[in-house]
Design goal:
The structure holds three protein chains of three kinds.
Chain A (H helix, E strand, L loop, with lengths): L29 H9 L10 H28 L4 H12 L3 H26 L7 H17 L6 H30 L3 H23 L31 H18 L1 H11 L1 H6 L4 H28 L10 H11 L4 H16 L1 H8 L5 H17 L14
Chain B lengths: L6 H10 L7 E6 L9 H12 L5 E6 L6 H12 L5 E4 L5 H11 L4 E5 L12 E6 L1 H15 L4 E6 L4 H17 L4 E6 L6 H13 L4 E5 L4 H10 L2 E6 L10 E7 L1 H13 L12 E4 L6 E3 L8 H16 L5 E2 L2 E2 L5 E3 L4 E2 L16 E2 L5
Parallel strand pairs in B: 1-2, 1-3, 3-4, 4-5, 5-11, 6-7, 6-8, 7-17, 8-9, 9-10
Antiparallel strand pairs in B: 10-12, 13-16, 14-15
Helix pairs in contact in B: 2-9, 3-4, 5-6, 5-10, 7-8
Chain C lengths: L11 H12 L1 H16 L7 H19 L2 H23 L6 H20 L13 E2 L7 H6 L1 E2 L1 H19 L1 H11 L1 H6 L4 H25 L13 H11 L4 H23 L6 H5 L1 H13 L18
Antiparallel strand pairs in C: 1-2
The chains are: A mainly alpha, B alpha/beta, C mainly alpha.
């Protein structure tokens, strides 16, 4: 894992690759894993419920604490905190209708989170999700418009592929620049976000603008029949399915395949990986490409299921929220699903706070900020309580 | 639905016909914060105005982006707050968001600010309204044309879309009428709210000799402040920025949305609706109908300028003023309105404007 | 009213760049100096964007309430310090990622700033004064371009002072030691945590002042979009300047000037591609970074512990 602060053990150059025997992510405290590995012992497979409980209890506790802090904030501003919570619950999870809203908001977040969650296993902190999303949406639209008489299914496939590839190439470039040129990937991805957004603006305002789009500069619209339809009678669109599948594939890839193993090895100790014969460069680029495919796909969904054309509304901040989801989910793609839903629910309740309690629109931002700071703090509590430490027999 | 009914009668009426005794709930959605000293604030003020009417309840939501979020907001207002008429106020909400939600809720009326309703193409419960603020800009142009000493006017705009171009052109035509030698220099910042870019644009224009500045951005605050700091005149937009430019504020083009919303409220309370044709689908109005107004004149405005401006205003009020009439050439020399043709304000062609008239320095191409 | 400026024509472009470099570059300067200090101690603070916005809001509010813009600047610095303290406390906890904290603090900081700032969008707060360095000129445009806020000079002085600080003082050496080789620093008895906390807090203080400049001088107004992304760019600027405070100064001037290029060109009639123009500073930074970085050696001047989480 990158950027853990305080631990000294890992900075020594070590020629023995520490093989991670556990099949999950870093929920097992180091204090237990290290001695066990050193002693060459394989842990007897007791039911490892303590670590799993910790992985649930800490975030849940963090959410409770955030609610308390936010409740205090509301009370200080003269609003009844319990009424506010009730509104949030009602708007986010309280009914099937509300939950659909939450899921719809969660879908792009799941895909965008993967753009950060996958490269971080390599040790790269990439925040280029927004750029990949808008570029994916833009390129998907351009291709989609070239197929006016094709069947909807083929249009969807073509657009999805284009969007994914466009996003993938964009992020792969960042990975390549990092590996082959040593350019700091965080800054590079940040700068490329701005460039991608500028390209989108230039394109929809001039190069591919539909003259009939008048006061909302957009590309020509995708015909209605070729749009992605919602799932059944719900208001949820295919983006959710793509998100769930992508997260599932990402988890499987990282945990259960050789490729994922190589990626994690590079992330743990790049020199050891090179010595072990892993071709760091191509794997880095490949992993970044896969990571970039996800927001690219999200961009395509945004166009094909929601907007109907490429325009500046594509630049809606999903990428930025995706970064936070990735970190809060501790880089676990399955965790991304959960956190996206949580964040989706939070965002979905913003309107209710405004309408029912006359709180300003910035209130939900404050709540978001509190949740993130508290959850980040809870990260540091893993492994601190004996109750959650696995017993070794 | 007035409160003068005796309580008993009201209760009886409530028992007999619960739904018809309900308040009218109007929902408002803004794309930005409602205290932006500009576009969204103008709508919020309109909403505050209409909520004072008897029997009207209002709900509002601000900073709703033009994504699936606005569809959610609309549905929430209908389902949770019982809104029966919605006013989503950003142009970008229309297609696809309003159209989609309108189909799902055929009994709710959707009134969109600025949209172009097309009979037959769009659902029956959708309508659009807008104000001919270019009329107010024309009058502002007249004042600016009189007040400029250098003959250079400046216009800072967000993007070259028809609504903006119409304002630039109207301002220019008004100024040209007062002083045929003026030029209007345009700078496009690229987006609706970019304070740093707007400040830079203002500074650059002033450095080029501009001495009257106006704008079409979401929040004119920075531009008016910069003008005042540099000691030149300014003309406001959306709402009155006179408070921030006590010396240099000439006048401004303002919306009067409470008037518009009040009209809608009264029509709906009287039982009319879009669906039955009682409320027209395309509602437009200018100075005459009270949709827009002109800020009070600032201290620097000369008597001559006031006279000319009032004369132009009077012509609007009487309905005899035509801003866009032939022969009108754009700033590349091409004729955009042939000689003899007059385009009335309601002409839908005007809503597709894509040129800048003569004496405007700038290009519609990005 | 003043006499209008005579048309400058193409001369207006370099003038705008000059004015933009100083006027627009000052927030870049403060934020990048703050980030430079933070990064020298081995931590990245992406949350400076939130600090910038909070600084802008608190400065405006304090100036309005008290009538003194300088009081506003101080309050902005204090608000920055508060956010910096939270960041330092959180980012130095075990297993917590710098970048995540930074982004979380942006959310937190801007949320609070927007919430409390609602009441201050309408009022007019007293602005910071300026030195009228162009008094000798008859040209109003030049005069205006040379109206420079004292904060700029403070920033310039700070850049040189920081350079001296890092090179020639004991405390500066502590900061560098902590940033380069924290283990060695610990062995020397330096408290890595304290030094880093102080660096982050003081860095955020500077970030807050950068924000105060935005709302109290140029553009001189409080709205929710007042930041042009200077907080994000500061991190790029610091790398661009190889962690050297004086280079940060030149880089900030460069960025401020580049920002002003787009509108200046439109003012003289060059009106194409302004969306792409808006992204030119970022594209240029990227190009420079690609050209000057190498995978063989780390960037000269990069603190050893930066990004490795030690």
């Amino acid at each position: 894992m990158v950027a853990d602060s305080g631990g000294t053990a890992r900075r020594r150059i070590c020629f023995c690759i520490q093989i991670d025997m556990s099949d999950s992510d870093s929920t097992v405290p180091e204090s237990v894993a290290a001695p066990a590995a050193k002693a060459g012992l394989r842990r007897i497979s007791l039911p490892r419920w303590r670590g799993k409980l910790e992985a649930v209890a800490l975030p849940a506790g963090a959410i409770v604490v955030s609610l308390v802090l936010f409740g205090l904030f509301c009370a200080a501003n003269g609003k009844n905190p319990f009424a506010v919570f009730a509104s949030i619950d009602k708007a986010a999870f309280g009914s099937w209708y509300a939950f659909q809203n939450t899921l719809v908001r969660a879908a792009p977040l799941m895909l965008c989170a993967l753009c950060t969650a996958i490269p971080i296993r390599l040790g790269l902190v990439i925040i280029g999700n927004e750029g990949a999303l808008v570029l994916g949406g833009l390129c998907a639209t351009i291709i989609g418009l070239k197929m006016p008489s094709a069947s909807p299914a083929s249009v969807h496939i073509a657009m999805a592929l284009t969007g994914a590839v466009a996003g993938g190439v964009w992020i792969a470039a960042i990975g390549a620049l990092k590996h082959y040129r040593g350019v700091n990937e965080t800054i590079c991805s940040l700068l490329m976000n701005y460039i991608a957004i500028a390209l989108l603006s230039q394109a929809v305002n001039t190069w591919i603008k539909d003259p009939a789009s008048l006061n909302k500069p957009s590309s020509y619209p995708i015909p209605d029949e070729q749009m992605l339809q919602p799932l059944g009678e719900t208001s949820i669109h295919w983006g959710l399915i793509f998100g769930l599948i992508a997260c599932g594939i990402a988890w499987f890839l990282m945990q259960k395949t050789t490729f994922g193993f190589k990626v994690r090895t590079i992330g743990a100790n790049i020199r050891a990986a090179q010595i072990a014969g892993i071709s760091v460069g191509p794997i880095t680029v490949m992993a970044c490409f896969l990571a970039g495919m996800c927001p690219g796909l999200a961009g395509m969904v945004e166009v094909a299921a929601v907007q109907g054309s490429a325009n500046e509304a594509l630049n809606a901040g999903y990428g930025y929220s995706g970064i936070l989801v990735a970190f809060l989910a501790r880089q676990n793609p399955l965790g991304c699903i959960l956190i996206s839903t949580l964040l989706g629910g939070l965002l979905a309740s913003g309107g209710a706070l405004q309408r029912d309690h006359q709180l300003p629109d910035a209130t939900i931002l404050v709540f978001e900020g509190i949740v993130f700071v508290v959850i980040l703090y809870s990260e540091s509590l893993y492994g601190r309580w004996r109750f959650f430490q696995e017993r070794t027999v | 639905m007035t409160r003068s009914f005796p309580i008993v009668a009201l209760a009886l009426a409530g028992l007999i016909a619960a739904s018809s005794a309900k308040d009218l709930t109007m929902g408002f959605i803004y794309v930005g914060p409602k205290d932006d000293y500009g576009y969204n604030q103008a709508h919020a003020e309109g909403k505050a105005g209409v909520s004072r009417l008897p029997g009207v309840k209002t709900v509002e939501e601000a900073s709703v982006p033009e994504t699936i979020a606005v569809q959610e907001s609309m549905k929430n207002m209908i389902v949770q707050d019982g809104a029966s008429v919605l006013f989503p106020t950003s142009f970008g909400y229309f297609d696809p968001h309003i159209l989609k939600v309108a189909k799902q809720f055929p009994k709710v009326q959707f009134l969109h600010c600025g949209g172009l309703y097309t009979e037959g193409k769009h659902p029956k419960n959708v309508g659009s309204y807008f104000g001919y603020i270019d009329e107010a800009q024309y009058v502002c142009g007249v004042v600016a044309g009189h007040m400029t000493k250098s003959g250079k006017l400046g216009f800072i705009a967000a993007k070259p879309i028809p609504q903006v171009l119409r304002n630039i052109n109207a301002f220019t035509l008004g100024a040209r009428g007062a002083n045929p030698k003026i030029t209007v220099q345009v700078i496009f910042t690229g987006d609706w709210s970019l304070p740093v870019k707007e400040a830079e644009a203002a500074t650059s224009l002033i450095d080029q000799g501009v001495d009257v500045l106006t704008c079409h951005v979401d929040s004119p605050k920075v531009i008016v402040q910069t003008a005042e700091k540099r000691g030149i005149y300014s003309s406001g937009y959306h709402a009155s920025q006179a408070a921030i430019a006590p010396k240099g504020y000439l006048t401004g083009a303002e919306w009067d949305w409470s008037h518009v919303y009040g009209n809608y409220a009264k029509s709906i309370q009287a039982g009319k609706s879009l669906m039955d044709g009682g409320i027209p689908h395309v509602v437009r109005g200018g100075l005459k109908e009270g949709f827009v107004k002109i800020s009070p004149y600032g201290p620097a405005v000369t008597e001559e300028a006031k006279k000319d401006a009032e004369a132009a205003k009077a012509k609007f009020m009487s309905g005899s003023m035509v801003i866009f009439k032939g022969e009108l050439k754009d700033n590349t020399g091409a004729v955009v309105i042939p000689a003899g043709k007059e385009m009335k304000q309601q002409d839908p062609e005007l809503e597709k404007m894509n040129y800048l008239v003569e004496r405007v320095i700038g290009s519609t191409k990005g | 009213m003043n006499q209008p400026t005579d048309q400058l024509g193409w001369l207006g472009v370099p003038l705008a760049i000059l004015a933009g470099a100083v006027g627009g570059g000052t927030p870049f300067l403060f934020v990048s100096l703050g980030e430079c200090l933070t990064e020298k101690s081995g931590k990245i603070n992406l949350g400076l964007e939130g600090v910038l916005i909070t600084g802008a809001m608190t400065a405006y509010a304090a100036s309005y309430k008290s009538g003194s813009p300088w009081f506003g600047v101080l309050v902005a610095g204090a608000a920055g310090m508060l956010l910096g303290f939270i960041h330092a406390w959180l980012a130095q906890k075990p297993k917590v990622n710098d970048i995540a904290v930074g982004i979380g603090m942006i959310s937190f900081g801007s949320g609070l700033a927007f919430f409390f700032g609602k009441a201050f969008i309408q009022p007019l707060a007293p602005q910071l004064p300026s030195f009228d360095l162009g008094g000798w000129s008859a040209n109003p445009a030049l005069k205006a371009a040379l109206k420079i806020c004292p904060l700029f000079f403070l920033g310039v002085g700070l850049a040189f002072a920081m350079d001296w600080f890092f090179k020639s003082t004991r405390w500066g050496m502590f900061v560098r030691a902590v940033g380069d080789k924290p283990d060695a620093a610990r062995a020397m008895g330096i408290s890595v945590t304290s030094v880093r906390t102080l660096s982050i807090v003081f860095g955020s203080f500077l970030g807050g002042i950068g924000g105060a400049y935005l709302s109290l001088f140029y553009p001189g107004s409080w709205t929710e979009r007042v930041s042009g992304g200077q907080g994000f760019m500061a991190v790029a600027l610091v790398i661009f300047s190889r962690w050297n405070p004086v280079q940060c100064l030149w880089a900030s001037l460069f960025f401020g000037g580049a920002q002003a290029l787009g509108p200046a060109l439109q003012a003289v009639g060059v009106s194409g591609y302004y969306y792409l123009f808006n992204a030119s500073p970022y594209a240029f930074t990227l190009a420079v970074m690609i050209a000057t970085c190498s995978s063989k050696r780390s960037l000269a001047g990069q603190p050893g512990a930066l990004g490795s989480g030690a």
